[in-house]
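Table S2 (continued). Query chain:
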Amino acid sequence: MTDADDVFDRAFADTIRLHEAVRRLDRGPIFRAVAAITAAVQSGKVLAFGNGGSASDAQHFAAELVGRYLRERRALPAIALTVDTSILTSVGNDYGFDHVFSRQVEALGAAGDVAIGISTSGQSPNVVAALKSARARGLATIALTGGDGGPVGQAADIHVNVPDRATPRVQEVHRTLLHVICELVEGKFVDLRP
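Corresponding output:
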């Protein structure tokens, strides 16, 4: 076996192991997240955010809700707070990077909406700040984290944790969990086409 074979096999083995471990955890937080998102998109919207790969996950999640995941249904209102470079850079420059999401929550969030903060480490100060801002404005808050969840998990009403510290593996499970959430939320709206 070559080093390349070892890397390949280890990556698959580790992601399968972590997926199986999370599959055996309490599903309550996922089902509560689905209920909160379903309630929000009926009369409000979803605001999703994170850094790096988690920013990409926020964008992917919003795209699945606005477009479709697997089945035809009405568009569901979702915004990734990671995509407007003018806002991100101006707020980062004027207020600091810790405020790039919280200022957007302050501007766009309203009671009845849901805020979803994604952090593989659970330590992201700008995600914590946004979740706190969301709570103060009456939004439901969901954290999707890795590790022990850290301050990000503590800042949310609903905490979905992938208990591992390997960023790539946590991201892979986050993507699977977000797909599960998409499928369950979408299932509530397939008979309500435009």
